[in-house]
Amino acid sequence: MLIVVKPQATPAEIEAICARIAQQGYKAHRIPGESRLAIGITGNDGALRASDYTALPGVLEAIPVTKSYKLAGRDFKPTNTVFDVGPVRFGGGSFVVIAGPCAVESEDQTLRIARAVKARGAQVLRGGAYKPRTSPYSFQGLAEEGLKILAKARQETGMPVITEAMDLDSLEKVFEYADIIQIGARNMQNYSLLAAVGRLNKPVMLKRGLSATLEEWLMAAEYILSGGNDKVILCERGIRSFDKNTRNLLDLTAVAMMKDFSHLPVIVDPSHGTGRRDKVAPLSKAALAVGADGIMVEVHDRPQEALSDGPQALLPDEFGELCRKLKQLEAALQA
Ligand code: PEP
Ligand code: MN
Asked: Which conformational region is residue 42 in: left (phi greater than 0), alpha (psi within -120 to 50 degrees), or beta?
């Protein structure tokens, strides 16, 4: 249920509405809009009666919301969610470019790549310190040492950093160092991890699960939002398909759909989405054209030596060329 408050409602009336909701055992979420305040109700199992609320002073109307996702949906919040991470604005209409290596491999490697991507147009630095690898024998990441390297790269380049928290232990460390906490595809339905990042006051990028439906993805976002953390970015990173020419099937239809269903910013990861260096640039342009709020791409200056995902990493100059093309395309689309 969504309660729309009258423009002239007093603070005491608004308090009383929230108190009534709490008294029923539900949670009230204040959702400020451009011209009015709304109060979303969550925590109810069955349908609520609109008349229970329309009778309260200060209530303009009570709108039933039948979708399973509430806080993530446009019924609750029609306007786009916009927030800043340091100097970078997400969801505000300008296309954000996140770039960096798949994994932090060493201080030298990360600083080299950080400088290279910054000089060519990256706004946020990515790099995994805790790596979810298919094989337990593959490089697992440098853990806290990797986080310290990312902090150094941030200090030198001024770019905010995004890095993955794989579990509750790594989350504690990632929270200390990162500007954006990444929840990886394999953890999209790790509900205790989602609830934990929901309690934090730090932006979260939630990657789509390997075979998650859009509703499952939105419900995962709902876990974070319902804990009180409203800074959530969705990231489409490709889904499992029957065709093996690409690592995954980058679902750009999902981006177009999510922009309808949700007010949250949507980022596209064409690196994991295709697994192929030669397809990262075309799919990045497609992401911009379909209405995504940005991309996250893997870049490595020595991809043949990379400890993970070398075949999908752009070379710095390829990345620079892509950024140039994206700027032109962005201007053309706005014209
Ligand atoms: C990553 O971005 O480093 C990553 C591991 O991606 P995903 O969780 O989408 O596989
Ligand atoms: Mn990777």
From this structure: beta
